[in-house]
Each structure stands twice: as structure tokens, then as C-alpha cells.
Amino acid sequence: MADDEPLPTRWSFQEFKSFYDFKFGRKREDKAKDGAANGRTVHDVNYSNGTSNGSRQVKNTSDLAIYEQYSEQGRGNLVQSNGASPVGVNEKPQRSLLPPFESAEVRALAESLSRDIIRGSPDVKWESIKGLENAKRLLKEAVVMPIKYPKYFTGLLTPWKGILLFGPPGTGKTMLAKAVATECNTTFFNISASSIVSKWRGDSEKLVKVLFELARHHAPSTIFLDEIDAIISQRGEGRSEHEASRRLKTELLIQMDGLTKTDELVFVLAATNLPWELDAAMLRRLEKRILVPLPEPEARRAMFEDLLPSNSEELPYDLLVDRTEGFSGSDIRLLCKEAAMQPLRRLMTFLEERQEVVPEEELPKVGPITHADIEVALRNTRPSAHLHAHRYEKFNEDYGSQTVQ
To answer: Among 57, 113, 195, 385, fewest CB within 10 Å belongs to which?
Structure first.
């Protein structure tokens, strides 16, 4: 068919039957047998280029459901949202991207959640996270090792299905979660409150249920719940809690409880800055609770050396380490940015004083960072997370997980 020739607006019964089988994943009979039974030749139709009304406007299947492993199988063709290939009718279909659902409504919810699957690796290595050796060791023990060596994690040694990362803001909890996804090469669901909260009555509970069904279908998988305190805070604290919020929390607790009773490699990795506001039932299901503390002096020095490399003048790293007690990793990055802005400000002042416009290729280079720039940055930057550090230590003593050093 020529490119300028429109697609047919009506289909034969056989063409509609083939499209229906492709759409809903039903097993089709062999072409030759089917053609002989009907006494006519059935032409193969490429449904990846058109919809049921002949339109060419179709959303890319990768926008509907994502499973990165399928792209590595070398098939070289698109995959429908149910896992069937538009070509190669007699070939065995791949595992479907979505599990079978009882209704189109639930399937639509699953497709919306599939957009929260991270495509590809987050590309965060353990080495890129300075310090936090205890937290990294606990995460490897809880998630990475059971996936690499499942033979050893059976019976009483069944891996923990719920892991909580708690600590001051800006200490690297989200980076640790991305490092887990990079190391394990699992299907990574990056879920926030907006992913599972709906304005329609009953949809929030359905979204939670569908989320865990998708995670089981794509196992081994990791569900990362960022700022989980916004989803499941303590119940019964007041009469102002809405009924929909209680139903959402109950469904999440039920699904979490179901994970602990199965051998499927589905992990729930949660992060919060306010662990004391979590419901006690959720704390019980998050069996491994790991403190992500403020960086130690060795970690702070490694951060400064990485962010502020020495050029012509040796920078006072020891002074920076001594003056940044109580700074989080995010605070240290802001401090380094403030120090790097000082020579740029001097250059901007020089350029603004000149009347003529300097061509881009003739612009002078930014000067090096000096000791005075470090002093100015230290005076202008304040830590943001040190006030409640003692509360995290107290929570870790009461509920946290420790390892033998």
C-alpha cells in the first residue's frame, strides 16, 4: 500500500478476529489451518501502525508499559502492550508486559502505573555514594545478596521484604535506593503519593493492589516508596482523617503482609525523614530499618575533594571538615556551589563594568577558588538538618537494625 493511500476504514471479520487475538493475548491458530478452514487466504496485518478505525495515530508501546529486559532479546520489533509481537505469528510470544486483569478499567490503572517504572539503569554506583558504609552493607545483605544467591536465602533466612531508610533530609536515601536498582538490575518502581492517590472513590485501593500485582509479575522487582510518611502516617490520631485515607492505608498494609508470606522476590524499599510519624503496623512490616546518618568526617572530606578539586592553590580541606559538623550531603554540595560562585562573581563584576560587549570566544576563564572564597562560603551557608539529629539516633536505638562491625 502506498504511503499516500489511506488505510481501509472497514475490516473483514477475519482481520477483526486477528486484531482481537493480538489485543487480548489469545492463542491464534496457524495461518494455513485457519485459511483452509475458511476457504480463503488471510493476509497478515501489521497492527502496530494502526488502530481499529484505521488511524495511524498510535501511542508508542514503550509509553504504556516498560520492561527493559525485552529490549535485550534482539527481536528488533515492537512489542504490543500484552507482550504479543506484531510479526512472527508462529513464534512463541514473550512474557506479557501486563498480567491478565479482569476488566479494562483495572488494565488502564496498570498502564498508568507502568509509566512509573524506571527505564534502564539509574546508573548510581555504590562508589559514587561517599560514606554510609553501614547502610550500604545492610542494603546489600537485605536486597542484593538474596537476588544474586537465592539458594542460601530459604527457610528461616528468607530475605526481608520491607526495608525502611530513615534519617535527616539530604543524606542520600534516594541515592541508596537507586544504587540498589543499579546493582540488582531489577524492575524498579519509583512510586510517590501522586502515583497511588486518586480523586475517584475506590481507585486508590485498586492502584495499590495493581501495583503489587505488577511487581509480582515482573519479579524480581523493587517498589521504592519515597516519603512514605505522606502515605501511611499513624492511624487514629484524630477525627479529621478521611475515610479514603484509611482505606488506602489498610490496602497497603494488606499487600505488604502478603509479601512476607510468599517466596517471590518483591522488595518494598521506603524512605522517610519522619520515621516517628509512621503507623506501628507499617513499622512491623518494614522489618529492616536502616539509619542513614549525617556524613562522618572521612565522608565529608571525600565529598569536598570530589566537588572542589585543587587547582593552583591548595584548598583547606581540614578546615572545611572541621567547620561542617552537622552538615548533610546536600548542605555540603550547596557549600561547594557557594564557594565556586565567588570567582564567577568577580568575573561578572569585571565584565559588567566594561561598556562594550565581549564576544563569546573572547570571554576570560573563571579564576580558581581561593582560601578567602572558602571562608565566605562557610559564613553564608548554614546546615539544614542538624536540629533533629538526636531524634533519629533515639529512633535508631529503639527500632533500628544494627550489624556486627
So the answer is: 57
Name the residue among 273, 307, 278, 277 with its Cα closest to residue 293.
273
Tell me, what CATH number does 171's domain have?
3.40.50.300
User: Are 325 and 193 in the same domain?
Assistant: no
pTM: 0.69
In this prediction, the residues of the chain whose per-residue pLDDT falls under 70 are 1-13, 16, 20, 23-97, 116, 118-121, 236-240, 260, 312, 402-405
* Angle subtended at Cα 220 by Cα 215 and Cα 223, rounded to the nearest 5 degrees: 45
Task: Indicate the number of domains in the chain.
Answer: 3
Tell me if 114 is assigned to some domain. no
Q: Are residues 200 and 150 in the same domain?
A: yes
Report the alpha-carbon distance of residue 59 to residue 62 in Å, rounded.
8
In angstroms, rounded to a whole number, what is the distance separating the alpha carbons of residues 18 and 44? 9
Same-domain pairing of 154 and 252: yes
* pLDDT digits 0-9 by tens, 144-183: 888 888 889 888 888 888 899 999 988 989 899 888 888 8
For residue 6, the tally of other CB atoms under 10 A from its CB is 9
Q: Are residues 229 and 341 in the same domain?
A: no
